[in-house]
Amino acid sequence: MRGQPDLLGTYYLASLYAFSPLDGTDQVYPLNIHLAHEHASNRLKIINKDLDLVILQDELHPATLVTIKEYSPTYTLYHIAVEPLVKILQDRKAGKTSNLILSVFTWFSKCGGIEFYTDNSSWLYYIYEMIRDFLREGDEFTPEEYQSNLAELRQAKKWGKNIRSKISKEVHLIELENRIAQYNPDNAFQTKLMEVAKLISQLNQSEDCIYRYLKPGLLMLDEENRMCFDQYLTFYWGDDNSWLGENVSQSIQTDLQETGHIDHPLTCQFFDKPQTSEQHNHDYPKAYFNAIEQLCDLLYNYTND
Predict the structure, then answer these.
(1) In this structure, are residues 5 and 22 in contact, taking their beta carbons and an 8 Å threshold?
(2) Which residues contact 139 (CB under 8 A, 6 or more apart)?
(3) Mind listing the pLDDT tens digit for each residue in 90-141?
(4) Residues with Cβ < 8 Å from 8, sequence gap 6 or more?
(5) In angstroms, what CA-CA distances link 225 with 29, 229, 248, 256?
(6) Is the model's pTM score more than 0.85?
(7) Residues 197, 175: contact at Cβ < 8 Å?
(8) Cα separations (Å) of 30 from 2, 3, 25?
(9) Domain range list for the chain
(10) How far is the CA of 70 from the CAs of 30, 182, 282, in angstroms?
């Protein structure tokens, strides 16, 4: 099989990025494939260090060269605290503020793909259960410490299930636009909340979604050395200065310290046909993570003010 690199889109790729492809006609298959890919990948890194080059095949494309570009968020972990929301809901004067922030949380849960720490299938559920087992089996706690720590675990579970139930209701998503229109902020917190809600509104009106950019394992197959989407982006209880909060933080660091790759959102451009321009638009994931950053800042400031 000679000339196979042509079929992989080598020349389409070389044409777009203006480099000379490797002539693999004097090599046998599959060595010609390997050499052509290696040559193109090296040339591409010189031209654009943010691009990776792989060979992919799916239902719509034959085996072909594909450029991949990751979107790297500002932070490593995006863990959204639930405890501040509980405090807001307990404030009888919060009124429309409670409803608006519930709409924000609901959107991230239903549309944003973010798992909740009380869900049995979530990664953080395993972390909290591990801490619970550690408390039950440990003998270094005084009776008072044991009861205090157990109370923290019970509170996190109780309120977690309560909030999980609330943000599962479709009404909070349906009422998002009405709640924004009727909200009149009168302090710094409420003004910031309005800004976050408007960011969510823009995401909600987009035809795009974060799932389009999630392709786990595409750049690294070894799951043991990868940090997955549900690990760096999740709802958690919060209260970071408590016994439970400190143990959750330590357990997360221990569990993730060996990861060598993060499954960031990414875009793919297939070269099974000629391409006239580079197609790697990260506007949506950029807006998505910006909204999460703003929400996390809002909740942190609410807790610490």
Answers:
(1) yes
(2) none
(3) 998 999 999 999 999 999 999 999 999 999 999 999 999 999 999 999 888 9
(4) 33, 36, 37, 55, 63, 64, 65, 271
(5) 32, 13, 20, 9
(6) yes
(7) no
(8) 9, 11, 12
(9) 4-70, 78-262+278-304
(10) 28, 38, 9
